[in-house]
Amino acid sequence: MDPEVVANFLSEQRENAPDDLQQSFLSIEDYWDRKLWHQLTDVLVDYFNTPASASQRLPLFKRFILSFSEKINQLKFVSLGLLAATQCSDDHERLSFLTNLTAKVNKPSSQDAYVYALVAASDVKLRLQDLAGARKDLDIAESILDNFDSVETEVHATFYRTNASYYQAKAEFGSYYKNALLYLACIDLKSLTLEDAQSRAYDLSIAALISDSIYNFGELLLHPILDSLNTPEHSWLRDLLFAFNRGDLNAYNVLQDNISKAPLLDEHKTFLWQKISLAALTEAVFRRPPHDRAMTFQTISQETKVQPHEIEILIMKALSLGLLKGSIDQVAEVARINWVQPKVLDMKQIDNMRVRLKDWDSSVNQLGNWIEGVGKDVWAA
């Protein structure tokens, strides 16, 4: 591009910029004139991240930045493109813009930037209900990411966020839960607004409860984002998660009237009862010491409030899901459990473990005293 044309364009844009951004434009002109591409890129990123620059982003990108795009960091180039894309008139125009941007950085030396742009395009396709197109782009991005030794956290965060949105649109709650947690692991939670944090915590909680592949909520229960649900409107959902984690049927009965507030939970009422019954079963096993885990069907029925004729099915379900390991004596109607899946414990459960450890310690001392008393002659010898 003719340097004189660029200079005139920048001068025109500077005059249109707010007074407090005039200095930024002077820096842009200076760095461009001196061909200091790194410094120019940084000042442009700062400028584009200023809300007042919104109306100038697209013109600057199309008529200025593209002229030296090969000379700057390609990941930052894509970042500038994504900020410019926010000013497109609609998603169709935005998709066309991002498709061209993706093609421009699809080179062996800039695959991280390519993934970044490709995922942004797939996000727009999701909004346009092109789920198949979005999945195709995300699969390409994932295959490239898997071969990277390292990549900027921002690229991974964008991928996991968009992948989670895809699985949410497909109602694949287990995959959504996994990708949404990975997204949160890639960002600073302070960057989320309270509303966004509550929305993500709410969606994660719903997914955890209704997924048929998630029976351990440890990662979510320990995640600080769950604290955003400590409000009068949403605290019941947080309490419900903890009730499921400890298999607390009484707490579930108290909280179940709130289920109708969440349409997805309301649709899965029967499944939720089955899931809390499994949680009650694993909790009943966990509370028992390892030498006392042969439980009659009648005992399990009392612990889980499940009808006696459905107990065998309940145990088989727990075994098939890997929540328990053991065997069933159908004739004697006894379940012998030798392993229960580990999970995050609340304070009450930790206290129960403390009591069990004290009992174990007392038993060991009693055994030691008995051996000492019976074997005096042996010890003397």
Which descriptors would you attach to this protein?
381 residues; mainly alpha; 3-stranded antiparallel sheet; 20 helices; elongated
What secondary-structure arrangement, pairings included, does this model have?
Elements: H1 3-16, H2 22-33, H3 37-48, H4 54-63, H5 74-85, H6 91-104, H7 111-127, H8 131-145, H9 153-169, H10 173-185, H11 194-210, H12 218-221, H13 235-245, H14 249-255, H15 263-267, H16 269-287, E1 294-296, H17 297-304, H18 311-320, E2 324-329, E3 334-340, H19 347-374, H20 376-380
Antiparallel strand pairs: 1-3, 2-3
Q: How would you describe this protein?
A:
By secondary structure, the protein is mainly alpha-helical. Helices cover 66% and strands 4% of the residues. α5 (74-85) runs antiparallel to α6, α7 runs antiparallel to α8 (131-145) and α9 runs antiparallel to α10 (173-185). The radius of gyration is 30 Å and the shape is elongated. The mean pLDDT is 92.
Helicity range: 55-70%
Based on CA atoms alone, the radius of gyration comes out at: 30 Å
Pairing-aware structural class of the strands and helices? mainly alpha
Largest sheet entry: 3 strands, antiparallel
Q: Give the overall silhouette.
A: elongated
Short précis:
The protein is mainly α.
